[in-house]
Each structure stands twice: as C-alpha cells, then as structure tokens.
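Good morning,

Attaching, inline, the backbone tokens for the sequence recovery test we're adding to the shared suite. The designed sequence is right after.
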C-alpha cells in the first residue's frame, strides 16, 4: 500500500514548468518532498487521516520563486526604518524621514531606504540640504534604491566622513553636497550595520515579506554582516521559511577558506553560494563602464574593481572552490568579466550580475561560456523613451536588458529582483510587457527564469525550480492565471506559499 501524503494540494491548475504546457490538478507532498503530481482523482488516494488537504479552488500552482539576487536585510530595513519608495519627491522623503525621526531614541540614526529620483518630477539626488530640513537629534541618512548612492545630512557628514575623501563625496564650490557614492559609502554602511538582535528582527520581517510575494528561496548578498549567523540560527530553530544561498562579498574569501567552506556547503536551507564582487558602478549613478560616454554627463563610467584586480579575485575564488558572481552593468565591464571567465573551466557556472548592457558579441559569449545571466526584469521599469535609461544612454536605452536576445542565444537566465522591489510577479510583468522585442519574454519563459533558471544559478536544478516528483515542495499558488491575463501579471495576488512542504503564507 502506498504511504499517505502529509500535504495534498488539490483542485488546482498545476503548471509544472518542467515541460512546456504541462498541467495537472494536484500535488502530493511527504517529508517536504513532492511525491506525486497528477489528477485530483488519482491523488485523492494518497489522503490519509493525518493528511492536510488544501483545496486550492482552481488557483494556479507554480514552483516557488527563487530570487537570484537579494539584499534581504535591506528589505527588512525599509520595512522597519523609513521607506522612501514611491515618494513623490524630496519633500515627501523629508517628511517620511521626519516621521521616523520622531520615533527613534534621541541621538540614534534616522535612516531611510529605497528613494528613486527617476520617478520624480524633480529628478535629482537627495542632498544634505533636503536632509537638514529634518528635525532630528541624530544623523540622518537616505539611501537610493540601488544602494550605490546616499545622502547624508550635516551631522552624518561630520560624524562619518570627517576626512571627506575626494572620491565618492560629491562637492559644489568645495563643499560636500551630502551626496556620497560608491566605495565612499563603506564607512556609512559600517556605522549603521545592525547587531545580531536587530538583524534577527530585520530578516524575520523580510522573510515574511518574501513569502507573501511567493518567494521560497533567495541568493542573498552578504558583506560583513550578522546575516549569515542569523540565517543559520533561524534554520536551527526551525524558523527559517526561505531557502537562503549566501553570496559572500570577496573580502570574506580568506576567512571562508580558513573556515573550510566552499560553494555548496551547508544545509538544505542555508548554503554557501558564490563569491560576489563588483567591476563597475550603475547606470543610475552614471558609473557603469560604457564604450561611449553618457548622454547626460561627461565621461563613460568608472571601475570600482578594475579588470586586473577582478582576475585576481576570480583566480583566488576558483582555487578555493568557489563560484563567482560579478556585478557588471556597462558593456565594457561585461566584456571584461567575460574575458576573465573565458579562461575558467566549464561547469564553474560563474555569474554576471545585472548585465544591463551586453553587446551582440557578449550575448553570444555568455551562452557559449555557460555563464549565468543573473538579471533583473524589474529594471525594465527604467525603460521607455522617457525613462532613466533613455536619460542616461539616449537611443541606447533599447539595448538594455535584452532578455529575448539572451534566451534566443541559449543563455541561462536567472531572474532576481535586487529588491527593487522584491516582487517576482512585478518583474515577470515587466519583461512580458516590455516595449522592445529583444527585451520581451513569454509568460512561461519568464516564470522559468524566476524558478528553474534561478535554481540553476545556485546548482539547485536537481531539487528546486519545477514541480516534479523527487523535488522539494517549494510552491506558490496564485489567485488567477498569468497566462490568462498577461497584461496584468503585476496585479496577481499570491494566495499560498509552501516551503519544504510547510504553508509559510496563506492569504485565502
Ligand atoms: Zn544587488
């Protein structure tokens, strides 16, 4: 006799994403593993007295979303501190920061996250003047959505950047404007780094948000933070409701080697992932490395980590058994990373993060070298001829985020959000409805990039990413079908999220 299931999800429109158009009605789960997929009638026989049966009432069941590029502590911060996303301009940012200032203890940092000036009529960075308007007893700092640009008020500038390094601290008539970019932000991040207790709060809030968005796994970028420890504690306590793959910043490499760790070590829930490094900056910050100058400024970007240094990091990481994930946005940076990867062994599955501008030649090489395109479909929100890309790049905006071209070349697309925002359906919506054909994917392809593709980027395609017997039961049920209304995918609601056979979110 067949053993009963622990969990039976039935009366659903199950899209396995394993084979095109394959659908079923029910999924049976035992010990966190999918044991059978089939018709509601067939799987009904696996319901025993102890089985939890979840009638999905015709909802669409998909593999859980794997977000291949996150900063979950930042999601937690935006939920706990001032969330500046969606603000109409500098004045509204200041008033949200004021509300936070009224909340915190005297002398504590007043922090805001996720401002995006590209959505404002007055499209400019926040400055010290904006922040000095906030009546606060402690320093005030506001971070742009991409985390590569921040604004500091006068108190924060005095306290955190008294020496005011030349690079990265913007000036006007010799005086700091409060705008700080790139590496100059390191001391700011160090000063506001949460302790273990605060990190526990941030990650608990963030994982709940992720589950509510249908996310069952993340590749989380960590640097000098308590996050890895807190994730492992949550795992041990049985309180982790997300699979976490830790992509460690390159300055952790020596310590990881000393601790005897390399890519793939860990538990079912928390794994050591890649070594993460930069090469260039961002298009928003006009620091991505371009072959032709920016349209709205002098210069063609700058290296954060120059190619020679990147090759050294790559060699050291490979020697130690690590996959590498390199941030490369401008076409020059993408080429530099691919040149370095070209000498790597096949099967290393190195990743390019963001990859916003790739030449035709680079697109072909990514597929050829079996390099993972770790890309963010939500970045297409900056497209269009009045968008951020057009402002920075002029006509070249149509060359950004060419997912169709990458897919056609045979590249593996691993979708992620970079938490701008953490919302897979919003990203899927952007690429399915992209204005330019070379950016546009079909619904199934886009969903596969956010499930199987992202799983592949983490060497997890054997256990995650599709709904098949033998895989872990990481699932998401949507209220309505993305195939039935491709122009409204961003509005679809997540009804249920299942991680390892546990219902971690239920909004029915
Ligand atoms: Zn990132």
């Amino acid at each position: 006799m067949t053993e009963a299931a622990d969990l039976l999800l039935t009366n659903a429109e199950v899209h396995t994403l394993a084979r095109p158009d394959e659908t079923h009605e029910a999924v049976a789960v035992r010990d966190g593993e999918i044991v059978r997929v089939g018709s509601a009638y067939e799987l009904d026989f696996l319901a025993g007295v102890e089985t939890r049966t979840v009638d999905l009432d015709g909802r669409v069941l998909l593999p859980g979303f794997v977000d291949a590029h996150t900063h979950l502590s930042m999601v937690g911060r935006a939920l706990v501190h001032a969330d500046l996303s969606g603000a109409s301009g500098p004045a509204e940012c200041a008033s949200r920061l004021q509300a936070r200032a009224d909340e915190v203890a005297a002398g504590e940092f007043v922090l805001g996250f996720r401002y995006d000036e590209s959505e404002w009529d007055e499209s400019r960075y926040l400055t010290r003047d904006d922040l000095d308007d906030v009546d606060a007893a402690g320093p005030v700092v506001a971070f742009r959505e991409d985390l590569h640009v921040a604004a500091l008020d006068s108190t924060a500038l005095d306290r955190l950047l008294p020496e005011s390094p030349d690079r990265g601290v913007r000036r006007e008539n010799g005086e700091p404007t409060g705008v700080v970019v790139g590496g100059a932000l390191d001391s700011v991040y160090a000063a506001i780094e949460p302790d273990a207790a605060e990190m526990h709060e941030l990650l608990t809030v963030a994982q709940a948000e992720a589950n509510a968005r249908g996310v069952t796994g993340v590749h989380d970028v960590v640097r000098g933070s308590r996050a890895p420890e807190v994730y492992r504690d949550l795992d041990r306590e049985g309180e982790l409701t997300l699979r976490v793959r830790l992509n460690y910043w390159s300055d952790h490499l020596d310590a990881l080697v000393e601790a005897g760790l390399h890519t793939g070590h860990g538990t079912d829930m928390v794994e050591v992932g890649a070594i993460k490094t930069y090469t260039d900056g961002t298009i928003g910050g006009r620091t991505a490395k371009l072959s032709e100058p920016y349209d709205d400024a002098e210069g063609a970007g700058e290296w954060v980590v120059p190619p020679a240094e990147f090759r050294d990091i790559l060699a050291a990481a490979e020697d130690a058994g690590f996959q590498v994930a390199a941030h490369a946005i401008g076409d020059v940076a993408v080429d530099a990373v691919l040149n370095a990867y070209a000498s790597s062994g096949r099967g290393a599955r190195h990743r390019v993060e963001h990859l916003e501008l790739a030449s035709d030649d680079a697109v072909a090489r990514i597929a050829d070298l079996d390099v993972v395109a770790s890309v963010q479909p939500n970045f297409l929100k900056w497209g269009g001829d009045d968008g951020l890309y057009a402002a920075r790049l002029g006509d070249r905006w149509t060359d950004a985020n060419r997912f169709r071209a990458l897919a056609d070349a045979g590249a593996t697309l691993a979708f992620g959000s970079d938490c701008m925002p953490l919302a897979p359906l919003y990203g899927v919506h952007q690429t399915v409805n992209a204005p330019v054909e070379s950016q546009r994917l079909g619904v199934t392809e886009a969903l596969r990039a956010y499930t199987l593709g992202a799983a592949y980027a983490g060497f997890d395609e054997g256990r995650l990413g599709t709904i098949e017997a033998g895989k872990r039961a990481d699932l998401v049920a949507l209220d309505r079908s993305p195939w039935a209304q491709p122009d409204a995918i961003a509005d679809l609601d997540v009804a249920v999220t299942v991680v390892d056979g546990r219902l971690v979110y239920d909004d029915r």
